[in-house]
Amino acid sequence: MNKKVxxxxxxIGSALESWLRPDNERLNRAIERSVDEGLFSLPDVHHRLRSxxxxxxxxxxxxxxxxxxxxxxxxxxxxxxxxHPGNLPLCGIEDLLASLLTGAKYCGKLSRRDPWLPSxxxxxxxxxxxxxxxxxxxxxxxxxxxxxxxxFSGAAQSLPxxxxxxxxxxxxxxxxxHLIRRAAFSIAWLDSGDQKSLRDxxxxxxxxxxxxxxxxxxxxxxxxxxxxxxxxxxxxxxxWLHSPQHKxxxxxxxxxxxxxxxxxxxxxxxxxxxxxxxxxxxxxxFMLHWVCGQASDVARLAQKFAPAVQSIxxxxxxxxxxxxxxxxxxxxxxxxxxxxxxxxxxxxxxxLIENLKVQS
Length: 360
Description:
By secondary structure, the chain is α/β, with parallel strands linked by helices. It has helices at 3-19, 25-36, 42-55, 58-64, 93-102, 116-127, 159-168, 195-206, 229-242, 252-263, 296-305, 348-359, and strands at residues 79-83, 105-109, 133-136, 149-153, 178-181, 185-189, 216-221, 267-269, 274-277, 287-292, 309-314, 328-330. The protein is globular, with a radius of gyration of 21 Å.
């Protein structure tokens, strides 16, 4: 690792450590404002920050940066535009860090659903001498950025609007490479209904209201939903006691429950959430689909619902799923991914290295 990269890592790592301190007033104001404006619940924000404190360390930055070639230099004029989603607190911070690690300039279009938390980190970076930073929740303020690469995560229906804005405001170069991520949910294989597995599943399903692409929306298990429903309900109630559901579903969800009941489907209505035993395509909020099947069904369903599937989880380290070698993660880490996890199977930093080389 060359000296320039090492210095960059040290500076970014120092900013992260300072920003994540419990007594950081800048971060505390951002937390307070995010909660007061109803953007996120306080337990979800605290969970996210605790997770980042464990995973986003100077050592982790250094390990991720090992893929940087010694002679890599994106050039002083290179810049990367990040369109940050706002479905969960600080979503896309890994992309921000990957952009910084390359040494290119960072341009961030922050979501209006999460402007304060990422701004507080960017201000910390700027105060600690990390230059080449530009950000706003208003696209108009990023006019004529002409970035050399774009990273976007979000729903497919958002893409036409993003393309229109970037073209009209000249936010990226005409032929700039785009890293577009569209995965929407994850799948879990549960080979047993023990208490730890059920608690891990509940956290993977209900954390952030299930809005994250790493959130589980479909479970495959060799037993029916009602066989462990009492223990699972206990785990859900325990979770909601400490992390109450921040949003409420549309009343139409109850009508789906009523329709399922008329059809005789196995299900569980939890006042503001529906668990349904079916293999229908996940997509509705506040719903978990349960499939009684075998390990071989996981790969079949992952293929059936691709490219919407983000991650495949197992509830124990000895798990081996046919057709999914090397693709599985531990269920307990669903909402605590490592810094260098691969959204949609792509290493963001490696992708930037390759594509900024092309642009240089």
